[in-house]
Amino acid sequence: MASRSRSCRPTIRTSRTLRASLARKWFNDRVQAIADGGSSGAALAVQELVRANAHVFLISGAGANQLTDEACAPTSVQWTHDAYSTATALVSGIMQSSKEPWFFITGDYAFGHSVEATARARIAELGGMVAGSVKAQLGTPDYSSFLLQAQSFGAKILALNVAGDNATAIKQAEEFGLAAQGMKIVPMSFQNVDIHAVGLKATRGDLILTSFFEDASPAARRFSDAFYALRNAMPSQIQAGVYSAVRHYLQAVKDADSDDGPTVMAKMRVTPVVDAYTQNGRIRRRPADGTRSLSGSGEDARGIQGPVGFGQARRDCPTGHTGPPHQTGMDFAACVSTLQTE
Question: What is the pTM of this model?
């Protein structure tokens, strides 16, 4: 979040309604841009405001497809990932080697629904099948009944699609020995830094999609080392995405000599994004209505050392376009690389 005076205010975590109310207050106080946006539900609420007031919204954590579809806004950018690109890239990568039946454990919220719907469509397109699915409330402490359902349905690929609860579900799947029994565990949204929290035993062999990887470039390594020195943890893709988005926004404000939302967004759109997050990113526009998302360079990171020595970066994403079909340009940033733990 930034105003013309370049001042910043601390992030406050609240519910969707309170976040929208807080964002409205900030805009009334002459704040010109908000970054990140929290959950997809909260981001959709904030985007309603920027559609009306033409301020800038730099989305990093939220990934629901609606943000660049029916709920679009001309002065917002979905910077780090979206459900379409995440699901398409992961399913395409998995099905290069397996077309066995899938089972989804999906969080009952906007991003979870978007990811499963997109993944199902891609599975069908590639000739696969979905054995079943179940919806789970976020914050569920015990996923054992859902894991047993996946087994009973004869699934061989388990898609864990419960956001921050994926770590809990992965640990419990490991306790049940599902991977040892031949089931592939696929976290549909999982931060690279979560590998450390879950542990190598539970994540060994998993494919994890990420739009940021600390060894993807010298700039990424320098940023990650500086971040680690301050926080004693490596940056996640969402944290790196927020850094990149705010940096690009502030540079555009300076270059345009204006903090007017449409003016700044026009400058951001024509200026390549070259930083620790991406070496050749561009904001692309949906032709029909002006929605924008960041497209990354799609560099092959094969053979680069993984986060804190945990794995290897691979290019399991298909080389073709993985962004929504209404968008043009290079692969979405979320398809830079996948990490395979060792």
Answer: 0.79
